[in-house]
Design a protein that fits this description.
By secondary structure, the chain is of the alpha+beta class. The chain is 35% helix and 20% strand.
Length: 347
């Protein structure tokens, strides 16, 4: 991709992951897609903008101050624009940024001094969308192999029906698992579901060895189904967005209704429907996390535990990947009520 010039004689364009490895007073140039933009006022009542930019390596939030330069270069020429009165909805656009890293209260701050609206054909927004770090073929094969592990033919046939006969697969295989925090990228839902299922299956096998009566078939089925409601909770355009339904109903309940409709069509018996529906409704584990009911069976308890650990470990991975190498700890994360530590590496 053609570089944006920082100066007349120097060009430097790097991805977001590399920018986060830079130190104070470093210059950078970046192309990416704007996912969020907020207009703020500083202490002197002057406007500035907080802009979240995404590329295939991650996200970064920078600030464009009142004296930053905004230009439209879509047609090859440079036209100055006023971000307040230019008529553009910046979210979803491919844009270029030239900036400098400063230090604010001991934390690195990314300041965008020049902002460009790019040619959307030359820099297509979809080229900046992050994908699962795992190969699509591996995830899809793993998912189908897990279904084939199920020994109960009724259950196996039902999973093949709900995912493949009823048309769910095309969304399920490409949608994100979230808009922020974890697996918020293309095929994130598939990656998360496979990871949760593998973890839950292994946990179930462990407890079976310790005399706990657990159905491995129910574990696999419940884990693969637990987040199906997310296919009707997001709008998977250039920028994944949460649909109103997910905000006022929640993906857990949406997924339960999708499951119940398919169970009725496929004539799944009452007891099996009840057991699987309970896993779907309880997989968040706590009322305050959005669970309509609490886990009450060993299968539901294990799927909830596997879902929770997959979220936390993946969140840690994403945070540490983007952590400046000079730091061992992230900033405080209110949602987790802690900072995260890089830890040690044993050979």
């Amino acid at each position: 991709m053609e570089a944006i010039k920082i100066t007349k004689d120097k060009e430097k364009i790097i991805n977001i992951r590399d920018i986060k490895q830079l130190s104070k007073d470093s210059d950078f140039a970046l192309t990416g897609i704007v996912t969020k933009i907020y207009r703020r006022l500083d202490r002197n009542n002057r406007p500035f903008w907080e802009i979240m930019v995404t590329d295939t390596t991650g996200d970064i939030t920078g600030r464009a101050w009142f004296d930053s330069s905004w230009q439209n270069i879509q047609n090859g020429d440079k036209f100055p624009i006023d971000p307040d009165n230019c008529g553009f909805n910046f979210e979803g656009l491919s844009m270029g940024f030239i900036g400098r890293i400063s230090d604010y209260k001991g934390q690195l701050q990314y300041n965008f001094t020049e902002i460009y609206i790019l040619d959307q054909n030359k820099y297509p927004p979809k080229s900046f969308i992050k994908r699962s770090p795992l190969k699509q073929e591996f995830l899809e094969e793993s998912f189908k192999s897990l279904i084939n592990e199920i020994s109960n033919e009724t259950l196996k046939n039902f999973l093949n029906a709900i995912f493949f006969k009823h048309g769910l697969w095309e969304k399920f295989r490409t949608y994100p698992a979230a808009v922020t925090f974890h697996h918020a990228y293309t095929a994130g839902l598939l990656e998360h579901s496979v990871s949760v299922t593998l973890g839950a299956r292994d946990m179930a096998e462990h407890y079976k060895n310790f005399n706990v009566p657990i159905s491995i078939d129910l574990i696999i089925a419940g884990a693969l189904l637990h987040d199906i409601g997310k296919t009707e909770s997001y709008k998977n355009d250039t920028i994944p967005k949460t649909l109103p339904e997910a905000s006022v109903i929640d993906h857990t309940v949406i997924g339960y209704h999708m499951f119940m409709k398919a169970a009725e069509i496929e004539k799944i018996d009452h007891d099996l429907t009840l057991a699987l529906g309970h896993i779907i409704l309880s997989h968040h584990g706590k009322f305050e996390y959005g669970a309509p009911v609490l886990p009450q069976t060993p299968e539901a308890l294990i799927v909830n535990a596997a879902d929770e650990i997959d979220f936390r470990v993946t969140f840690w991975r994403n945070q540490i990947e983007n952590l400046n190498p000079q730091s061992d700890f992230t900033d405080y994360i209110p949602m987790l009520e802690r900072r995260l530590w890089r830890g040690i590496s044993l050979k």
